[in-house]
Amino acid sequence: MLPSTKTVLLCAFSLLVAGFSTAPAPARIAPNDNRHPAGTLKNGVLTITLEARQGEWRPESDQGRAISVAAWGEPGKELSTPGPLIRVPAGTEVRATLRNTLDKPLSVIGFGKTRGLSDSVLVPAHGSRDVKFSATTPGTYYYAARSGSQIFDLRLENDMALVGAIVVDPPSAPPPTNERVFVLSWWFTIDSTSPNGLGRATMAINGLSWPHTERLDMVQNDSVRWRVINLTEIEHPMHLHGFYFRVDGKGDGVRDTVYTAAQRRLGVTERVLPFQTMQLTWAPTRPGNWIYHCHFSDHIDHASSLDTERGVFQQGNTAHHDSDRPHQMFGLVMGIRVAPKGPQVASTETPRAIRLFVRDKPNVYGKKTGYAFVLGGTPEEKDRAAMPVPGPALVLERGKRVAITVINQSKDRAAVHWHGIELESYPDGVPGWSGQGKELLPAIGPGDSITVRFTPPRAGTFMYHSHFNESQQIASGLYGPIIVVEPGQTYDPERDRVFFVGTAGWTDNVIVGPFAEHLLNGQRQPKPVQLKAGTPYRFRMFNLADGGPTRITLMTGKDTVRWRAVAKDGAALPAGQATVQPANLTFDPGEIYDFELTPKAGEIALSFGPPPFPPGPPPANLKIPPNLPPPPPIKTLKITVK
């Protein structure tokens, strides 16, 4: 029997649909945890082929939004960002074939004789290039690529996932089992007409953005080694909650300097410059949940989520995110879970009680809301109009337990992070995460309060600040200093000076501004200060000014004042680093420095603000919007010494 006309048509339609359905799906770009070296290592030679192919990257889980970008992969294997890990012992010769399947040539760094940003090779479109180098010196290095035949400079959005790590281990030494490699990357589109200056953006660690980044599971008192590689065009102040880390070395892709014992120091926040590497070591001595994150607040808020389009966060698309809401972070955050080891001893000491109020006030910085902390038991508590910035100095005693009740009088939720204090997890201040198991710190709702308890184990300089809606609350004043003194000592604010840099509200459009001005101790133009000649002073320098680094200089006429470095992030500097040096400080939000100064009679000008732009023209492919407003002005505090 002949088939009916209807049957023939149905068969033809089915074949047509089948033809369309067999069109290749975009290649998946997977995250890479940098735990599995690529290539073939034999007789002292690593052979590897890397292909640059177009694919889809989903940094916010496989259910999140896709970005069409180029990435690296080995032939026949899945693309990944970061690209395949190259890890070899020192003395290995690396022989790589770079294949470019894209329609544009690629300028690739990392495989030349000296490597680094200035040593690039060109791979033609739909072509290949054989390269080799000798991995002679142990350290942390990287590779990356950008479209075009120019030397390697600012990359376009299609190139931003073309990055990877290179690690050279000491000869005859296997990679340490307690070591991890973390690559920081980003992707964004610029739309200067949007409220925040961006179309969409994301920031990632090993190819994933919080809350989808890997959870790092550890056991109490483990020793941990990390290699951090910043493959973005901006710096990142990376901050560890609850613990100090030791900075063991830094590199620039050409050379990696492993510090001697005298060069190492402790910190809780460390700047990682563009295309810089860092090695650090630390030990989680207390159980619970902790985080490691960038301290630029817009690198951890919804601006770094692909669910934000033209500055507007699309709440309806958040079902694919693991939630720590109502406090929801994104971007450059990693979660750390430390399991307890052995019995945990709870404190039975009666704590000193402190009350701390959170307030807000409309239209403090133009149309923007201002925030402030107020200390209980002070005249400001009774004056509801009082909005002191920075918040009051909390003077604590080393080894003396405190119970701080935070009362939220603002209209927003609140949380407080005790920055730099080595404390238990629950009071650490990250709502929906700090704590352990089901006992997690909640956000403090308007009109509500919470009491947290901790014992500061170290004398030094620390700070407290908001950890809810950080990009607005911190930028608008919700921060203050913590001074921990030794038992029996007192804090003398006359000889022990606080200099706290913040901003006058937040910046809406990070591309074209206007950019928030810097404040010093809450003042747009600080009032003059008087010091006594020949008297030793301690200058405690705090930075929570978002948007970039801050530079502070002290000058007498044309001469730079000299001061002695004392501490970093509350930890005393080693003797070899506690040196007299010019009073020039460039630091990022989340960093704290202590200096000692014995001034001579005369006038000192303390200037503060963003550092100057690098000399020379901008990259050729950087499209600068017209009528770009100037950066925040450099301001000066007049210090008279008599």
Word description of this protein:
The protein has 642 residues and is mainly beta. 4% of the residues lie in helices and 44% in strands. The protein has three helices and 49 strands. The strands form ten sheets. Strands 1, 2, 3, 4, 5, 7 and 10 form a seven-stranded mixed beta sheet that branches. The protein is globular and about 70 Å long. The N and C termini lie far apart (114 Å). The relative contact order is 0.10. Mean pLDDT is 91; it is low at 1-21.
Q: SSE layout and pairings?
A:
Elements lengths: L4 H17 L6 E4 L8 E3 L2 E13 L9 E7 L5 E3 L4 E4 L2 E9 L5 E4 L10 E4 L3 E9 L3 E9 L15 E7 L9 E12 L7 E8 L9 E5 L4 E7 L5 E5 L4 E7 L4 E3 L6 E3 L1 E4 L4 E6 L5 E7 L13 E2 L2 E2 L19 E7 L12 E14 L2 E8 L3 H4 L11 E4 L4 E7 L7 E4 L15 E2 L2 E2 L8 E6 L5 E7 L3 H4 L5 E7 L10 E8 L14 E3 L8 E3 L5 E7 L6 E7 L2 E2 L1 E7 L2 E2 L7 E3 L1 E4 L4 E6 L4 E8 L25 E7 L1
Parallel strand pairs: 1-3, 1-5, 3-7, 6-12, 13-16, 15-26, 27-30, 29-36, 37-40, 39-49
Antiparallel strand pairs: 2-3, 3-4, 7-10, 8-9, 8-11, 11-12, 13-14, 16-22, 17-21, 17-23, 18-19, 18-20, 18-22, 23-26, 24-25, 27-28, 30-34, 31-35, 32-33, 35-36, 37-38, 40-47, 41-42, 41-46, 41-48, 43-44, 43-45, 43-47, 48-49
Could you write a compact summary of the structure shown?
By secondary structure, the chain is mainly β. The chain is built from three helices and 49 strands. The strands form ten sheets. Strands 1, 2, 3, 4, 5, 7 and 10 form a seven-stranded mixed beta sheet that branches.
